[in-house]
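Lab notebook page, bench 4
Experiment: in silico fold of construct C2
Operator: M.H.
Input chain length: 109 residues
Purpose: comparison with the prior construct
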Amino acid sequence: MPTVVVVLARSLRMCGIGLVLGSAAYAAEAYPAKPVRVVAGFAAGSSSDVVARRVAQGLAAKLGQPVVVDNRPGASSGIAAKLVAGAKPDGYALINRCVTYLADGRIGM
């Protein structure tokens, strides 16, 4: 039976994290001044969710602000992508999405 580390390593290889950052260049305040949201396009408890939460822990430690994982499964991550695409482009809405979907724009949009 594989360990959690092996499962995470496999998950990272099979489905990388795509983080889409909005531009914070014109923000008046220092970034981040409020919690950051990572929208995951997969169900809670899935391997992608585990990876998103591990990355969120690391980001929170580096940024000094809470990083919240918001699971929005469905439509091959299209629901999560639409939510982040419609968010204010200030860098506070990130997406965790499978690399195969990012490689082919026709899928999941």
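Observations: The mean pLDDT is 77. The CA atoms of residues 22 and 88 lie 8 Å apart.
Next step: discuss at group meeting.
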